[in-house]
Recover the amino acids of this structure.
């Protein structure tokens, strides 16, 4: 399954819990600072490895992460192609 | 840009206000606030919910959880919740208390609210220290644990033993639902959410006193990185405070 996340840098406190928990290791820490002075988490996922597994959003104490998944409404032909 | 085929599978619950909290990075209060908000949203009882904040770091929970709120003097949240619930029995009334608040200065209040079987819900956040005031020893501080007021570690010979609140309250006839959970990883967090839901459902069905004790991290006062603090819940807290269901009356079991 394909997914992605969006991290609200203004809410993130750089605790790195999401970085450690992500099974795909696609979350890093930015070089920039948030208004509160923390280095926020950022998604680094050039190969689209995020599965939208929800582990990062579940562990995030500051509810800074929104998680998305690819909608699975495909036409029968697409399903067939995906299965092949 | 997000592809149009992407749909939201997790977003901030509606009743958790979109503000930045004052909690330290990695503090478990944020996770537990979120779980309360998710449950209240899912139960659809936002407009009838009244929270009672306690004294401790979570004293400002009323700035984050978007319900009517009262703020009780130290340890007195169960008494205040009792009054509110008795006056407004159709409202969902909960307290949100730390271990310094609930198990120390508030020990009498919580015992008697439980003994009376008050139809309120208690969210009890046990991080084993007085967080707000700088990490002093609490009644729940583990044996040998170093705190700012037990710098050599808690010596049980002179400082007494930690109190297992859930086990103690479960001996009373009054309570309907008393469980201990943790927020040390996604699996325990999800189980904690389920317990919070059951606790609120018990209240909605008029079944009596419900409490969810939650083993939580205070990385700042434990002097640990957030990830290590979550590990510490597993390695040190859970062995002393076993997770489990300490009292679940049949009527609550029937809700599941
Ligand atoms: C009557 C009174 N005594 C003492 C205090 C100081 N005080 C503020 S918070 C606190 C302890 C809070 O600890 P806890 O309930 O564990 O919450 P945490 O901050 O760890 O979340 C104390 C003793 C107070 N505010 N009022
Ligand atoms: S949803 Fe899962 S895979 Fe995607 S960033 Fe979060 S933890 Fe990693
Ligand atoms: S878990 Fe949340 S607050 Fe912590 S670094 Fe990740 S996004 Fe930021
Ligand atoms: S002192 Fe501890 S309990 Fe208080 S906000 Fe910081 S981490 Fe949380």
């Amino acid at each position: 399954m394909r997914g992605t996340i969006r991290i609200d840098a203004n809410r993130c406190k750089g605790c790195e819990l999401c970085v450690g928990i992500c099974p795909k290791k696609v979350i890093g820490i930015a070089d920039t600072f948030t208004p509160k002075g923390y280095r926020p988490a950022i998604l680094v996922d050039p190969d689209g490895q995020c599965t939208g597994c929800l582990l990062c959003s579940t562990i995030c104490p500051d509810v800074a992460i929104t998680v998305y998944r690819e909608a699975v409404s495909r036409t029968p032909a697409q399903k067939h192609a995906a299965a092949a | 840009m997000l592809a149009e085929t992407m749909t939201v599978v997790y977003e901030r619950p509606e009743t958790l206000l979109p503000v930045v909290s004052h909690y330290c990075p990695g503090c478990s209060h944020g996770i537990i606030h979120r779980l309360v908000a998710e449950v209240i949203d899912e139960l659809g009882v936002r407009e009838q919910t009244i929270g009672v904040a306690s004294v401790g770091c979570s004293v400002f929970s009323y700035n984050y959880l978007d319900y009517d709120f009262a703020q009780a003097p130290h340890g007195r949240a169960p008494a205040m919740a009792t009054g509110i619930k008795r006056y407004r029995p159709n409202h969902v009334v909960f307290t949100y208390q730390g271990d310094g608040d609930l198990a120390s200065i508030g020990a009498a209040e919580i015992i008697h609210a439980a003994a009376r079987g008050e139809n309120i819900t208690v969210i009890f956040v046990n991080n084993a220290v007085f967080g707000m005031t700088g990490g002093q020893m609490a009644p729940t501080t583990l044996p040998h644990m170093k705190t700012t007021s037990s710098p050599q570690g808690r010596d049980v010979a002179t400082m007494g033993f930690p109190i297992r609140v859930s086990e103690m309250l479960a001996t009373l006839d009054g309570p309907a639902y008393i469980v201990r959970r943790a927020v040390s990883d996604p699996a325990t967090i999800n189980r904690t959410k389920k317990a919070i839901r059951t606790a609120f459902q018990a209240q909605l069905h008029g079944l009596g006193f419900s409490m969810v004790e939650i083993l939580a991290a205070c990385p700042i006062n434990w002097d640990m990185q957030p990830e290590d603090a979550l590990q510490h819940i597993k390695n040190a807290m859970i062995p002393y405070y076993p997770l489990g269901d300490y009292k679940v009356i049949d009527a609550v079991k029937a809700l599941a």
Notes: DSSP finds ten helices and ten strands in chain B. Residues B 23-24, 27, 29, 57, 127, 131-132, 218-221 surround iron/sulfur cluster (ligand 4) (CB under 6 Å). Residues 141 and 238 of chain B are 13 Å apart (CA to CA). The longest strand of chain B covers residues 92-98.
